[in-house]
Amino acid sequence: MGINVFDIRHLCQSGLLRWTDHAVKRLIKRAISRADVKQTLLNGKVIEQYPDDYPFPSCLVSGVAQDGRYLHVVCGIDAKELWIISSYHPDPEKWTDDFSKRKEN
Predict the structure, then answer these.
(1) Pairwise CA distance, residues 43 & 59, whole Å
(2) What are the residue ranges of helices labelled H in 1-105?
(3) Residue 105's pLDDT is what?
(4) Do 60 and 88 form a contact (C-beta atoms < 8 A)?
(5) With contact defined as beta carbons under 8 Å apart, do 66 and 33 qualify?
């Protein structure tokens, strides 16, 4: 079953977000705003599931940031919070045109 977009949106809208140190460092390095991450979570779709991640399952969400560029957000859900793990603009060389599937090697 995995993480669904409705749970992600509910937690995001409720302000139940936790930002890992890794995520904050990457946002700064990549010039991505928290607002861009939130917009992606509220309007994006889950494109990959990582059910065995530790300490809780996570997933990859693909969406569009405020500037119109595609954005990927790795997030996980524990019992009551949405953890933001990382975020990046996907590389067109590694993803299909809609950035929803990895290209074959």
Answers:
(1) 15
(2) 5-13, 21-30, 34-43
(3) 66
(4) no
(5) yes
pLDDT in tens, 26-38: 999 999 999 999 9
Contact 3, 46 (CB under 8 A): yes
Integer Cα distance of 50 and 74 in angstroms:
10
pTM of the shown model: 0.94
Tokens found for residue 78:
């524990």
CA atoms within 13 A on the CB side of 36: 23
Residue 104 DSSP code: P
Q: How many residues does the chain have?
A: 105
DSSP assigned state of 95: B
Q: How far apart are CA 79 and CA 35, in angstroms?
A: 24
Smallest CA-to-CA distance from 7 within 67, 81, 63 is with: 81
